[in-house]
Amino acid sequence: MESGNEIIPIASDHGGYEMKTYLIENMTTMGYKMFDFGTNSETSVDYPDMIHPLAKTVNDGTYPLGIILCGSGNGAQITANKYPNVRAALCWTVEIAKLARQHNNANILALPGRFISNETALEMVKVFLSTGFEGGRHQHRVDKISKTL
Ligand code: RB5
Hints:
- The chain is 45% helix and 15% strand.
- With 149 residues, it is of the alpha/beta class.
- It has one domain: Ribose 5-phosphate Isomerase B, Chain: A (3-Layer(aba) Sandwich).
- Strands 2-1-3-5-4 form a five-stranded parallel β-sheet, sandwiched between helices.
- The chain binds D-ribose.
């Protein structure tokens, strides 16, 4: 997905707020339109309150891809993955973010706001939004994810 008129939804708790603000500023400069689901300060909040509304929109197809953050990334990722059409990937390097799209067809990038730099996060977002799913054997594997025993 090239930057243009696409709307990219983004959400965080207080642990990801500072990084979310950095990403919104830089992505807006790059030409993306950002839909900010909050939070709006570093005041302590419960991550599901911001993550559920974003995950719902990716789940129902309103947005093809989204970005979520919390301190570790785990609470946000676990919440988003409650939705059947969501594949949220917790990533901490550019290469892992790329593989999440290529191999897992991840549609939400989960970032650990307290454990990576803002600059790395921005590079990860750029790669996540511009990399496609490879399909083939990976489609076969992704199809099996929902087939619980
Ligand atoms: C908040 O302190 C922290 O628990 C939260 O941001 C996240 O890391 C939870 O998984």
